[in-house]
Design goal:
Largest sheet: 9 strands, mixed
Structural class: alpha/beta
Length: about 800
């Protein structure tokens, strides 16, 4: 059976448990990812003479399996990895971690057990990669990236810099407008880390082009090489070991910096030692150009050089120099680059005047693993720079979701940023095309701080003093809900009537009737039906598409098609934000549908039940937890084909719950100090029967008639409960047998109906319908809030206070308290 993405992720992350405690997460990633790499290439390429990776004799995962329990397991694993590295020019890439390091892995038996357990985890049949990759969808590459994200999360502030969040990487790649790429297209990252930015950029080029990356940290550069191979990238050059600023590796035949079509980067923020190893003012690559104006003024050669203790602009200028004349780049930098003064202000002014900055995207705080400060994406574009008179700005700082101790861009945030940036659309409080003339105005003085140009503050909810004093709801607050009144054109007059004073209205109904009035209004009902029809049209189109999925289908292309269609369907629709609807679809894709599509892409429309076997880590005992089916859960089969049997079982379960409640109530009532159950150590059938026998023997049944009635009632309930349990077990077993048999006869048409109609579309529809509920709830809540805010004017409040005060004084006087 094909592996599900979610299971792959959880299995791999579980392997990390074997190393926790012995070393820092930033170190144990080197062990886990190397084993993942060895396992993958062994499964995928062993024995294949045409493979991109040669798996030599003595250099495969099978060789590792033979080492389990071996006293010299650590050294032998090093040898196996060395064989694989030597055969594929991967020395210094996959052989960086030392599997014989007893400081990290323990001494003697501890090391043997730990490494044996690691190998055992990778032996899991679910991790058979020989047939678990959908063409064009790098399921393993995605898993590799997932692990790096988890390692970055655990590594903490100082050691999470090897990974750029994939959501940010996707935004950067998509705003570069990478179109019509060929195998000659070049991609470069001067601080490439684990290579995620480069991979996202190449994804936008459909995998075409050549990758160039430089990374100072040797271990991280090794991750990048492995990451590229696991993503199927062959045309790669990753250089490791030197700082890009002091010793750039990629040069042309004349010794100048090599230039590229696209450059992406997430350099270290505000590096304090960026100039170590070279003199910026004598830079042979011409990255820090001479300032002609200042040089003439002072009579000395003056360079536009970044501050000695802050290298943000050093990296940006390096990127600029590394772009072809039509090249485009995107770089993540802290917000300070937008507004800091002195040398940085001069550099910023030069870049603006030359038209190199195409756009700026302000991101939420706390996205990155190396820092919690907010950052921005600077988009550079040399093509047409001399004619550029505007910079497009986006304030995306408020679009995110909390994810553990970090923030994360949602799918809707990514799509919105990319759509609006690429279309250069002005959106109030979010985006704006700002002229260089405005930026250069003396009041702004080339300051690019986004809040200067985009006011993204939420409007204050202003209290109306007159309404508080005299009552009534301000018309201004009612008109602020105009987006609703444009759709529900007569609803406002159903809810509000004019006050005796101008500019104020009052509710025509009670607060308790607001929700019902809105929900029952014909225009609300009509709009809801229109939205239902909208979804129904999308559903018809995409049901046909989804039922046409076959083996070899590319899941990422599938979600691309149906998600873009849902965005188109809900574009420019009143009250509904198309990106909110899109997020509902993407949530379901990530949680359920993605795994299903990968199963279909590998195995086709197969519904294969399996036993759920859970192994106890401490005892090695396996417990059978029943059975299910991944693609077609048994609940779907029951709902469609055995609905009556399901309802009958639910009725039995409800009756059982009723009896349990009655027993609990009876026990609570008579388990008091003088109750009939007080003398029992435990209230159960045996003790009840024992007490009944005692009453029979005492020949005093008349005196104990009430007690007898309670005891017999308890026994009757217990017997009924037992019968229900027996019946429930019989019916459940019988249904289980019927369902299992039904799986054997399911046709492909029936499986598609169960998966697409009953599972996918039903869930998506329920989720999207919550948007309509949210619309109505938002309107209801706001009207109720306004009504409550002004329902009791100040004079009336004063009168009520006086009346309450008089009542309190009267009560105190009755109690003999003298009020002065």
């Amino acid at each position: 059976m094909a592996i599900k993405k979610s299971e792959l992720y959880s299995s791999l992350w579980a392997s990390c448990d074997e190393l926790r405690g012995g070393m820092d997460p930033s170190q144990y990633k080197d062990y886990i990812l190397v084993l993942l790499f060895v396992k993958y290439v062994s499964d995928k390429y062993a024995g294949d003479t045409d493979a991109i990776i040669e798996v030599p004799k003595g250099g495969s995962f099978k060789d590792m399996q033979a080492l389990k329990g071996n006293k010299d397991i650590g050294n032998q694993i090093n040898i196996i990895i060395g064989e694989l590295a030597g055969a594929n020019d991967l020395k210094g890439v996959i052989d960086v971690a030392d599997f014989a390091d007893d400081d990290k892995l323990g001494k003697g038996k501890e090391m043997v057990d730990r490494l044996t357990n690691l190998i055992t985890i990778f032996e899991n049949p679910a991790l058979d990669f020989s047939k678990n990759r959908a063409d064009g969808d790098d399921i393993l590459g995605d898993a590799f990236e997932y692990l790096m994200k988890k390692f970055a999360t655990e590594s903490g502030k100082s050691k999470g810099q090897f990974y750029t969040p994939s959501e940010v990487s996707r935004v950067m790649a998509k705003v570069l407008n990478i179109h019509h790429a060929t195998n000659k297209t070049t991609f470069y990252d001067p601080t490439c880390g684990s290579g995620s930015l480069l991979l996202k950029a190449v994804d936008e080029a459909d995998g075409k082009g050549t990758i160039y990356g430089q990374e100072k940290d040797v271990a991280t550069a090794a991750l990048a090489r492995m990451n590229m191979i696991l993503h199927g990238q062959e045309a790669i050059q990753i250089h490791r070991g030197q700082s890009t600023l002091s010793d750039p590796f990629f040069k042309d035949s004349n010794g100048y910096l090599k230039t590229f079509d696209f450059v992406v980067a997430n350099p270290p923020f505000s590096s304090k030692n960026w100039a170590t190893g070279f003199n910026p003012q004598d830079d042979i690559y011409g990255r820090f150009e001479k300032d002609e104006i200042e040089s003439k003024k002072t009579g000395k050669t003056v360079y536009r050089t970044p501050p000695e203790k802050n290298g943000d602009y050093a990296f940006l200028l390096h990127i600029l120099k590394s772009l072809k004349s039509t090249g485009k780049g995107a770089c993540i930098l802290p917000h300070g680059v937008l507004f800091r003064g002195n040398a940085e202000a001069e550099i910023r002014r030069s870049l603006i005047e030359r038209g190199y900055i195409k756009g700026i995207i302000g991101l939420p705080a706390n996205l990155f693993y190396g820092t919690g400060i907010p950052a921005c994406i600077i988009v550079l574009d040399k093509e047409g720079a001399s004619e550029r008179k505007h910079i497009f700005m986006i304030d995306a700082s408020k679009g995110f979701i909390k994810d553990g101790n970090k923030n994360r861009l949602r799918e809707q945030d990514i799509h919105k940023i990319v759509d609006i940036f690429n279309k250069q659309t002005d959106v109030p409080k979010y985006s704006r095309l700002v002229s260089v003339e405005e930026i250069s105005d003396p009041k702004n003085d080339f300051n690019l701080n986004i809040p200067r140009y985009i006011d993204s503050q939420v409007a204050e909810d202003i209290q109306d003093i007159e309404a508080h004093l005299l009552g009534g709801i301000p018309n201004a607050d009612i008109e602020a809900l105009n987006q609703y009144w444009e759709v529900y054109k007569t609803l406002k007059t159903e809810l509000f009537a004019a006050c005796s004073r101008p500019n104020y209205s009052q509710l025509k109904i009670s607060k308790e009737q607001i929700k019902q009035t809105i929900f029952n209004h014909p225009e609300f009902v009509s709009f809801s039906e229109e939205m239902d029809a909208l979804f129904a049209d999308w559903k018809i189109r995409n049901t046909k598409l989804l039922k046409g999925l076959t083996i070899g289908t590319k899941p990422k292309q599938t979600i691309q098609r149906i998600s873009e269609d849902i965005l188109t369907t809900y574009t420019d629709k009143a009250l509904i934000d198309k990106y909110d609807v899109y997020q509902h679809l993407m949530n379901f894709w990530n949680e359920v549908m993605q795994d299903d599509c990968y199963l279909i892409a590998t195995d086709g429309w197969k519904a294969e039940p399996y036993r759920i076997l859970v192994k106890n880590k401490n005892t090695d005992k396996t417990t059978d937890k029943g059975w299910d089916c991944d693609l077609v859960p048994k609940s779907l089969v029951i709902d469609r084909y055995f609905f009556n049997e399901k309802k009958a079982i639910e009725k039995l379960e409800a009756d059982k719950e009723t009896i349990a409640t009655q027993l609990a109530e009876l026990e609570e009532e008579h388990n008091t100090e003088e109750g009939y159950f007080a003398e029992f150590d435990k209230v159960n059938k045996a003790n009840i029967q024992k007490r009944l026998k005692a009453i029979d023997n005492s020949k005093s049944q008349a005196e104990n008639a009430e007690e007898l009635q309670v005891l017999k009632k308890y026994l009757k309930l217990v017997d009924d409960q037992s019968e229900l349990n027996k019946k429930l077990k019989e019916d459940t077993t019988a249904l289980d047998i019927k369902v299992i048999e039904r799986y054997k006869s399911l046709t492909e048409v029936e499986i598609k109906q169960l998966v697409v109609d009953d599972k996918w579309m039903a869930n998506i529809e329920r989720s999207i319908k919550t948007e309509m509920e949210r619309i109505s709830q938002r309107l209801t809540q706001r009207i109720k809030e306004l009504a409550e805010r002004y329902e009791m004017p100040l004079p009336q409040q004063t009168k009520v206070v006086v009346e309450l005060e008089e009542k309190v004084i009267a009560h105190l006087q009755e109690m003999g308290f003298v009020w002065n």
